[in-house]
Specification:
Layout (H helix, E strand, L loop, with lengths): L1 E10 L3 H10 L5 E4 L8 H4 L4 E2 L8 H11 L6 H21 L17 E2 L9 E2 L5 H14 L4 E4 L3 E7 L5 E7 L5 E11 L20 H8 L4 E2 L4 E8 L12 H4 L3 E3 L19 H15 L4 E4 L5 H7 L1 H9 L9 E10 L2 E3 L11 E3 L4 E2 L11 H17 L22 H18 L6 H22 L6 H22 L24 E2 L8
Parallel strand pairs: 1-2, 1-9, 2-6, 9-16, 15-17
Antiparallel strand pairs: 3-5, 4-5, 7-8, 8-9, 10-15, 10-18, 11-14, 12-13, 13-14
């Protein structure tokens, strides 16, 4: 079925998608595809907060400088400056909507809300809602979205691909409803806010992580992707092989948490002068090295010295969650392990969210703006969602003349692919990525990953010629091709920089580093 009544189609209902919908809806009608699974996505699980220059003791230049350092020489400085400069007004906008940020009632407070500090930041500039900032922001935005008369929420449709026309414009999305029926939503403008690609790995910090579906949907239309090799692993995910993923916020270290190895020894001061507050790539590699050295499957994050009152005050969500899983963090150190967390690469966009495909935009983690470079600094992610959703909305407020070219037909066939086959290939892909393309990569390991992923592709590709559309199959097809592109980028970067660490080329390369730009057509040459 084809439905061509949509002005602005937004795919994804995390912070970026919700903000854009609200900022556009007073000017144009918005259709927001927001499956219920979005409530388990990265935005809602963001604990730490939002980085912005809010304190009188802080300034724009300091935030810019900290971000450039964390990005390890690969940030786009104009994008960094644009993002940081827009931060304070973005926070004021959230406050105007009623987001319940944690107040600071202390006598010497220079700002009405409590500001914490996280890794890479030289000042306290993280505004937060206790230790559940993502949930507070998403819930507030949802209330406003649900009450706006110009926003149509669609929770029963899942996008599996984009629609192009003969002139190369994006014309909307192909979706499946709850019954598996294919529906085409034609739109004047389409915005991807689908999240990152941490689902390419076995262990992640999100219960239902994205696997780069939006990135590959854009790539199928010819969009350029950038910096795919820079996958951030959060240093501290709760280690519990029997339970679901749960992030232990960086704010825990910001408030004084100490990392200990299996012998109970603190190790970060010997690695970096910033110790536990070093950027995430450094901390994650240090933890990985300790695990390898001691043959342990985790390390410990210790906050017992903060005292019960401070722990309950600053980290009520983490305290309660750990308690439900049998861990008293007031009296026991928290077992933690690095886990795939955030994609610094994605769809190449400009400062207004435009991709290289006309009428297609991307915001949030699915996009690569140049802000994060080779490593994202803590709490700059929600800031990026806010700033670029609002800048993209400004560009979308004026309607454009619709395309008259015919949409290109859907490629799907009629033969179902067994779920068992889909799950086997997905698990094999995740095993390869986790073993060979994670915190530390080697030339040999990347070669093995490329060979293994190629074999999986050869196994799946023949089925796709007449495959019946399904959400699991479409997601796997997107994920497997993105994994191959990621390995291609990692093999091509002959240096170690930020999140990409390869002991076979351990130092920085060119004095002027370049982003990794790639398109789907690159797979045809492999």
């Amino acid at each position: 079925m084809t439905d061509g009544k949509h002005e602005v189609l937004v795919i994804g209902g995390g912070v970026a998608g919700l903000v854009l919908a609200l900022e556009v809806a007073d000017h144009r009608r918005v259709t927001l595809l927001r499956p219920t699974s979005d409530d388990q996505g990265a935005s809602r699980w963001a604990q730490g907060g939002i980085a912005a220059v809010l304190s009188p003791q802080d300034d724009i230049e300091a935030h810019v400088a900290d971000t450039l350092v964390a990005g390890d020489g690969l940030c786009d400085e104009p994008a960094v400056r644009f993002t940081v400069e827009q931060g304070p007004s973005a926070i004021e906008w959230l406050l105007s909507l009623g987001v319940p940020f944690t107040p600071d009632a202390s006598a010497d407070a220079g700002y009405p809300y409590h500001l914490t500090r996280e890794g890479g930041h030289g000042a306290r500039r993280i505004i937060h809602a206790d230790d559940a900032t993502g949930r507070a922001v998403v819930d507030t935005l949802k209330q406003h979205v649900e009450s706006h008369p110009n926003i149509q929420l669609c929770g029963e449709l899942t996008a599996i691909g984009l629609i192009a026309d003969g002139e190369g414009l994006c014309r909307g999305a192909r979706c499946l409803d709850a019954g598996g029926r294919l529906q085409e939503l034609l739109a004047e403008d389409t915005v991807l806010a689908t999240g990152g690609a941490s689902g390419l790995y076995r262990h992640t910090t999100s219960p239902q992580p994205a696997s780069g579906e939006g990135m590959m949907m854009a790539a199928e239309l010819g969009a350029e992707l950038m910096n795919l090799e820079f996958q951030q692993f959060h240093p501290t995910c709760l280690f519990d092989p029997e339970g679901p993923a749960f992030l232990i916020s960086e704010a825990v270290r910001g408030e004084g948490g100490l990392l200990l190895n299996a012998a109970g020894e603190r190790f970060m001061p010997a690695v970096d002068p910033r110790a536990e507050l070093a950027p995430r790539d450094i901390v994650a590699r240090a933890i990985d090295a300790q695990m390898q050295r001691t043959a342990s499957d985790h390390v410990y994050l210790d906050i017992r010295h903060l005292g019960e009152a401070a722990i309950r005050h600053h980290f009520p969500t983490i305290h309660a969650h750990c308690a439900r899983r049998g861990l008293d963090i007031v009296r026991q150190p928290i077992p933690v392990v690095p886990a795939a967390h955030y994609s610094c690469g994605g769809i190449t966009t400009d400062l207004g969210g435009a991709t290289t495909v006309p009428r297609l935009y991307a915001i949030g983690e699915v996009a690569c703006t140049g802000l994060h470079g080779a490593n994202r600094m803590a709490s700059n992610s929600l800031l990026e969602c806010l700033v670029y959703a609002r800048s993209c909305a400004q560009r979308l407020r004026a309607a454009k003349s619709p395309s008259t070219a015919e949409p290109i037909p859907a490629p799907w066939g009629r033969k179902p692919v067994p779920m068992g086959e889909i799950e086997q290939i997905r698990e094999a892909m995740r095993q390869l990525m986790s073993a060979r393309v994670a915190i530390v990569r080697t030339d040999h390991g990347l070669d093995e990953a490329a060979k293994g992923l190629d074999q999986l592709h050869q196994r799946l590709a023949p089925m796709m010629s007449d495959a019946m559309a399904s959400v699991p199959l479409a997601n796997l097809w997107h994920a497997l091709r993105l994994a191959r592109l990621t390995v291609t980028c990692a093999r091509a970067r002959r240096e170690s920089r930020g999140l990409h660490f390869n002991p076979d080329c351990p130092v920085h390369g060119d004095a002027t580093p370049h982003p990794s730009r790639i398109r789907l057509q690159a797979l045809e040459t492999i």
